[in-house]
Every structure is written in C-alpha cells, then in structure tokens.
Amino acid sequence: MRHPRFLPAGDAALTVELGSRIAIPLNRRVRALALALEKAAVPGVIEVVPTYRSLTIYYDPLALSMGDLRRNVEGLLERLEAMALPEPRLVTIPTVYGGQYGPDLPFVAQHCRLTEEAVIRLHTRPTYHVYMLGFTAGYAYLGGMPKR
Questions:
Q1: Is the pTM above the cut of 0.70?
Q2: In a domain, 40, yes or no
Q3: Distance (Å, rounded) from C-alpha 22 to C-alpha 20?
Q4: pLDDT tens column, 24-45
C-alpha cells in the first residue's frame, strides 16, 4: 500500500494516511503535517485532528474544495522533512498505587507473577510517548509500555 493515501471522510473532511503501523517516527510526521497545515493557515481549513498514523482535516467545502485541499497538503508533504517540530515536553504525573486509589494492584501483581513493587517499577520507569488525545478531553493514547 502506498502512502500517503487521501481518504474522503464525508463531504467536509479529508483523512491523510501517512503509514500503516503505529510508530513514533510516523506519529512525529503526522504531528509535523498538522503543524505545517496550521502554520499555512489555508483558508477554509477548520480543524486538524492527528492520530497514530493519519491526519484528518475538517474544512468548509464552500470555501475550499477537496481537490484544492489535497494539493495544499501535497505541497506541504514535499517540504515536511525540512520542518522542525518543537521539542517534546516532559510531563510528570503524580501517581498513587494501591489502597483505595488502586485496589487492583494486588490482582495485577499476582496475574503478572510479580511483586507489587515490581509492577510499580515497570509502570513508572519508562518515558511514555503521547501519540494523540482521545475523544474524552485529556485522554492520552500512550506508547512505551513495557511488553511485560
């Protein structure tokens, strides 16, 4: 399958699929395209929504045709590699394990054949990558969880 793929999403949205797997470099490319489109301030573009591997662009079809939008995006994609993304921000999230705030910790530890302390270490050690924000405000889709 060749990428990018341009997929109509109704009469007022276009999804630009940049790849077929979930990977940080691909997600960075999606975010770079979103930033480039926002900076280009294309008249008629209403909103951009990045996902793991694609970008959905909502637009006003009375102000911008899908064909013109596609040509704008193709032009941005040609220059995308030269575009620098802002440095990622590191956010530390205070977390409480066990007790009334995490009553499933003993079950998780037993299920994984680990001590509760080992579960906490496995969960707190990685730096997670936020691929996208979900439908529920602030719900982050993370990558970087240990396979274990």
A1: yes
A2: yes
A3: 7
A4: 999 999 999 999 999 999 999 9
